[in-house]
Structures are given as C-alpha cells and as structure tokens.
Design brief:
The complex is a heterodimer of chains A (about 325) and B (about 350). Chain A has 14 helices and 2 strands, in the order αααααααββααααααα. With about 325 residues, chain A is mainly α. With about 350 residues, chain B is mainly alpha-helical. In chain B, helix 4 packs antiparallel against helix 11 and helix 11 runs antiparallel to helix 14. The chains are: A mainly alpha (about 325), B mainly alpha (about 350). Chain A: Its main location: membrane. Chain A: Belongs to the binding-protein-dependent transport system permease family.
Chain lengths: ~325, ~350
Amino acid sequence: MTTTNPPAAAVPVTKAGGDRPSTAAGRVRKKLSSPLATGIALVIALFWSVPTFGLLISSFRPENEIKTSGWWTFFTDPQLTLSNYDEVLFGGSASSGQLAGYFINSLVITIPAVLFPMAICALAAYALAWIDFRGRDWIYILIFALQIVPLQMALVPLLRFFSQGVELFGVQLLPAWGLSGEELFIQVWFAHTCFAIPFGVYLLHNFISELPRDVMEAARVDGANHPKIFRTIVLPLITPVLASFGIFQFLWVWNDLLVALIFASGGGRDTNPMTVRLAELAGTRGNEWQRLTSGAFVSMIVPLIVFLSLQRYFVRGLLAGSVKG
Amino acid sequence: MNFDLADQADKFVMLLGGLVAFVVLVGGLLLVLDVIPTRLATRREARLAAAADAGVPIAAGAGRGREGWLAAGFLAPALLLLAIGLIFPAVRTTILSFMNRDSSAFVGFDNYTWMFGQPDIQAVLLNTLIWVLVVPTLATTIGLIYAILVDKARGEAVAKALIFLPMSISFVGASIIWKFVYAYRSGEQDQIGLLNQIVVWFGGEPQQWLLGQGYKLNTLLLIVIMIWIQAGFAMVILSAAIKAIPAEIVEAARIDGTNAWQMFWRITLPAIRPAVIVVVVTITIATLKVFDIVRTMTNGNYETSVIANEMYNQSFRYGETGHGSALAVFLFVLVIPIVIFQIRNIRKQRSEA
C-alpha cells in the first residue's frame, strides 16, 4: 500500500455518471500528476496539428509573403488571398497545376473503384458465410492469405496483362487490351478492384458470418433463395460495415499514388489523379510554395469531408477489421 | 481562367460507362443466379413429383451440388479478379526475379546476389530496417500514451480527432505538409520552415534537413511523417481496447491499492496485449510497403530510398524487371513471418476465449 492511495472506504461514493473514472486508463491518468499528463497530451496534440495548420494558413497568403516569411508572421501581419487556389486549380500555364482537371480524374477513378469492390466483396463474403459447399473454408483462407501479397509483386505482370494479353506457349489466349487516353481509367478501376478484394472479403465476412442464424433459416423456410436473401435481408443488415469498407476503399483509392503512377500515367493530364500531379509539382517545383500548399489542400478536402462526416463508420470498420481479428 | 467543363466531357462519359457496367454486371449476376435455380427447382420438383408417383425412392442430399453452383456464381467475380490481379502476377513476379532484365533468359540467383552485393542496395535494405524498427514502436507508443491521457477527459472526441485526422490525408499530401516544416533558407534570410525557425530562435544555424545523412538524420525525418500518420490508427484501436477492460478488474486492483504505474503494467497492458499486437503488425506491414513518402520528399536521393521505392525505380524507370522483381519477392518474404505470427496469435486468442 502506498500513501497516495486512500483505502477504498475513504473514497467518497459518487453518484452514477459522476466523473470517477471507471476504466483502467482513466484511473492511470487520474493518478498521474494531472498537470504533467495534460502537458504531455497538449504537446502531442500540438505537434500533430501545427504542421497542417501552418500549411492551411500558408495556402491563403500571397505568393510573395509565403516565400519570404514564415506562416506564423500571419498573426502579426494578416494578409489573405484566394489567388493561390485560383491559380492552382484553373491557371493556364503548364506549370500552374491545373488541378481542376486532375480533381475530376480523381473522382472518375474513385467512384467505380469503390463501388465494384463493395459489390463483389459483399457477394463473395455472403457465399463464404452462408452457402454450404465443399471447400469453402479453404477458399476463405486463401483469400485471407492473399492480403499479404504486396502490391509491388503484382504490378509488372498486371501491366503486361493489359498491354500484351495472355500468351501461353506461343498461343494468344486473351488479346491485349490496348487502352489509351481516357480508356486507361478502366485499367485503374480493374487494378484497384483486384487489390481491394482480400481485405474487403475479410472485413465483410467477419460481420456477415455473425448475422443471426434464425433470420436466415426463417427466410429459407419461407422459400427465399440465396440471391433473394442477399438482396432483401443481408444487404440492409450489413449497410454499416459496408459503409465502413466503402470509406476505407475511398480513402485508399483517393490517396493512392503507386497504382495511379503505373496504370494511369499513360494518359497524362487526361487520366492522372491529383496525387500524381502533386508529387510531380513537389518534385519539379519544390519551391513554388503557393502552388504546393494550396494544391495539397485541394487534394485533402474531399477525404477530410468524408472522414469528418463518416468518422463513426470508419472507426467501426477499423475495429471490426483489427480487434476482432 | 483556363478551365472548361466541356473539355472534361470524355471523362464523364467514361465514368458513366463505368457505372452502367457496374449496374449491368452486378444486377445481371444476381438476376441470373435468381432465375436459373428457380427454373431448375421447378423442373426438379416436377421430376420428384413424377418419381413419387412412380414409387421410386428419392436420393438424399441431392441439394448440395446445386448450392455449390450457386456459390460459384457468387464467388466467381472475386476469384476471377484475384487470379488475374494477384495470384497469377505473384507467381509471375517470382519467376521474373530469376530472369534477366528484359526477361529473355534465366539467370538463377543473379538478381538476388546483386541485391545483397550492391552497396547502394545494401543502404536501401538498411533504411527499410530502420523504418520497420522505428515506425511501429514509436507510433504504437505515442498512440497508447495519448489514448490513456485523453481517456475520459473533457473533449475526448475532439482531442482524438486531432491525432486521427492525418489518417485521411494522402501520403503525398502529408509529405507536402512536412516538406514545408523542413523547408530551408540560408541564414541571412527569414526562415519559412517551422523547424529551422525554431532552430534560429534558439540561436542555431538553419539546416538542410533532407540532405543530412549523418546518423541517418534525413531518413529519420521521413520516418516522422509515417509516425505522424499512423499514430492515430494505433490510438483508435488501443483506446477501444482500453475501454473494453472490465470495470470490476480495475476496481479490484484499486481496492488492493495498486498505484498508477502498477496499474498500467499489471492491468492495462496485459489486458490490451492482443490489440497492441494487431496494431504493431498492421503498422509494420504498412511501413514495409511505404513508397509515396520517400518518393515525394527526396525521390530516394541522399540515401533515403527504401525497398518499395527502389522496386519502382528498377522496374519502371530503369527497365530492370529482374532486379525489381527480386526486390518485390524479398518484400513478400519479409511480410510472411509477420503474418504467420499474427495468425498464430489470433488462433491462440480464439482457443483461450
């Protein structure tokens, strides 16, 4: 017994809902000298938000100001302008960013690349959980295990699949796709869909397999077949976890650089998403801060909105995918 | 203004085409699966009725095969795409890693001896090792500390969102944010990068951070970005695990008079151990594959490259498919033991539960 801990009897009984911490961590926090704990938390929070905050402020400062003084001088000498955004989005010169077009590319890439995996994974997860057939455990394990194949391993052969088709012992089994220009979007959708399946099936299977058996059996007794059960019973029930998978996939595709660099870059301005353009700007025009700062924010806006409005689902998905194991 | 929405029409046509394809494929599949078995079922019933009339005994378990066909229909798109997009390519890459640069002849283990023999590539492997050791450890520790500090505190949701927010930003966006923090200008000028300004405030000389190779300084500064992104993930998972610790255990420990330190090491940490393992494993795998940060910040120059970046360079910039494939295979080999470890843990956890 240490002196810092009063015996249990001496602790005043508080009402339910009082501020007595009921979790271990809450207790640990209370026991740490409170100013120190608050201090550490504040330092971490500051360290995490100040870089983004600085970039946000910078993106609204006039070009000359950004390049000659730190963003913190804004507080003593506030000057705001929207011209950085105007230029980076709509500017005419080749070096300006022209992000408006790339923004649309990102949208066009993302929407189908989210919808396809959602549907395909839901179908597969349902079959693996509720249709009785031989070898389903093995198929599930195979799909689960494919999560460990790094993307990098698939890139070269998949690119060849698109450009040369499938050839086996000199016989052309499948023709080359020969896509160009805007058609390259198809390649990107295809690649993203393939890469999303292992994780998607795993996440959705966790949830679908725990739906109540009674409901399923009642439906079968009523004469519903699997497609009908899937459409009318399962889909409405799994909406929350489907949403969380959708958010995951959305953030992943929207933020992706590698897949886009390899499968979309052939189309240049017509197909490259914003991440590719930004990486390009950061590399070749590393000192054009007015473009980089505002451009970075343009690219963050959509995921931030999605994230902030759907945070609950996103966190639920994280927990379903990770802790339940 | 030099942007005309009409110029973008082609893209929207593609998008529309994609959406139509989506509806047709998924809707069509469900329709086919719905209609055909129903047809078959009616026909079978008719046959069974006829058989019953004739007095023939009905074979048991005849339904199972039919379910199998249905399952195949549900699984077909997923399995087909996996075969084309992952299984076949992974096998192919493994084969390519034993072939020369344009995959015209077998060269045995040459690509692998190149990988371990070349000093440049050895530096890349060392960097990857540093990434994998530092990022999961620090990200998890910071996430855990923060989760404990803000647990049940006022404004917990906001405090958590602050740390969690970087997860929604692209690695490229995050890199630009930090590029700005590390920005350098020579001593006579005003600094625009926060880090150098802090150095100057303390009377130091501004540094070219990303060029500093001593003690791997630049690599460590890139690692900061990854930690910045991943700590939020660790925090969310660990915070949920902490909240799931039964109140009775905590209460009992408190009555026994444990202090905060003991409480953490003997109650909290053991109780959330499975979650900690999941977090460390997930972040480790993500770190092994990191590519965007290095590419955006330094393009792998100044000895900051990692395996994933080098693989991209070899395969897609220098056309050295053999080298690139060998690096990809090596990455795969590194991930395998981590995953086996995780599967074992999950199994152990299940059998204990």
